[in-house]
Amino acid sequence: MAATPQTRIVILGGGFAGLRLLYRLHNALHPHADIVLVDPRATTLQKPGMPDVAMAGKPVAQFRHPLQPIADRANARFIQAAAQYIDPHKQTVALSNGQVLHYDYLFLTMGIVKDYEAIEGFRNFGYSMCDDTEAPRLQEALKKFKGGPIVLGTAKTHWGHTVQIPHLDVACEGPMGEVTFMLDHDLRRLGLRDKSSITLFTPGQDFLEDVGTTVHHILHERMTVKNITVLRRQTIVAIAADHVVFSDGTTLPSALTIVIPPYAGPSVIKYSGLGDEKGFVPTDHTMRHLTHRNIFAAGDVNALTIPKLGHLAIIQADIAAATVVKELTNTGDVPLYKPEVFCIMYEGGSEATLILSDTMYGGQTDIALHGVSAHLMKWSFDSYYFYSHGHLPPDLVQVGLESVLGHVNIKRPRL
Ligand SMILES: Cc1cc2nc3c(=O)[nH]c(=O)nc-3n(C[C@H](O)[C@H](O)[C@H](O)COP(=O)(O)OP(=O)(O)OC[C@H]3O[C@@H](n4cnc5c(N)ncnc54)[C@H](O)[C@@H]3O)c2cc1C
What we know:
Elements: E1 7-12, H1 16-29, E2 33-39, E3 43-45, H2 50-56, E4 64-66, H3 67-73, E5 77-80, E6 83-87, E7 92-95, E8 100-102, E9 105-108, E10 113-114, H4 122-125, E11 126-127, H5 134-144, E12 148-154, H6 174-189, E13 196-201, H7 213-225, E14 228-231, E15 236-239, E16 243-246, E17 251-253, E18 256-260, E19 263-264, H8 267-271, E20 295-297, H9 310-329, E21 341-346, E22 352-357, E23 366-371, H10 372-387, H11 394-405
Parallel strand pairs: 1-2, 1-9, 2-5, 9-20, 11-18, 12-13, 12-18, 13-14
Antiparallel strand pairs: 3-4, 6-7, 7-8, 10-19, 15-16, 16-17, 21-22, 22-23
The structure holds flavin-adenine dinucleotide.
């Protein structure tokens, strides 16, 4: 099947996965495809910047990028609305503004829902850094903080069982590690560290269950040096004004509680019957829906994505785009899906730890490198994203990794 001007492509969600797809499909198919990008937001949110907003007080506007000019540059139409119902048989999407879109290919890239309500008391006493509402709210709370016990951690997320994924109790713990280290740094700077304790809880067997023993060892060393207590196998259920409650009934005093809530599938996926029992979209390793062959999912909404990481969203978007481009034009190769955990945990000041691990998926790479070069790499990455209007720089990541890892004798990862 050749791409024709009638090939209608609809992308639902302009986050990491959606924008990567937009750029990839535009590059390969323009002018033979009519691409529509749909998102209820006017701006795409660079979530990895939220810890900087919450902890360092950076302006939230720095991490919002308007979607209209991004779509214009890719010769796509942008519609600011939410997808409310997808009919895979009629191949239509009903939007919150009353429009109905017809598609030949549909890409589900609407991310997930953060279920703050699942933790009793969160709205009154809890804080988070997960989005552009919660991160500035946490920043305001920190400005008033005068010391005391701080409890922070990630809630348990439950996954569906339609596709095979490694066991993981949490959706994404990296940002919590970042916030923990940044908090320690800031409290020391403000002379409040002696008046404050920091306790990091995890529902998993260990903090960052998705990496191997080498990374754990390095992280534990850093947390011990910084006097951070780690509580394992603890699932938060409630937050009160001065304590938190875990599922086993134990409580812990807390003057400031910061959480990443459980993740849930988006309602449009549930209503449309396209998800597994938890509302995540089951696909094969080309990101194609298990039942509907012209629907693809990439990023957090895909049931395969464990943990929920932007890095995996990009890998999946590349695979989904390559699959459709091959189908339409019979050109290009479809990369194999080889997931890996990759993140750079900023720690405040000029320090950061780069983490790269695939042990959870049966690989042997398990690296944590701490230092200024990891921080420089994160800074370059953020700047590139900002100045290129939502382009993620895989080549830059590769170049950065080579410069950081050049002296280490490891198998070089595919990025
Ligand atoms: C605080 C924080 C820090 C993080 N740091 C890192 C990091 O350092 N490195 C890393 O790799 N990952 C990081 N992550 C994870 C990363 O941000 C996510 O994995 C990534 O954003 C997922 O991309 P996505 O495109 O699937 O979803 P998103 O980026 O969430 O984008 C989804 C888009 O879909 C839109 N949408 C929602 N509902 C609808 C609808 N019904 N119709 C149409 N559109 C809809 C949303 O408005 C949004 O624009 C972090 C996450 C958080 C919360």
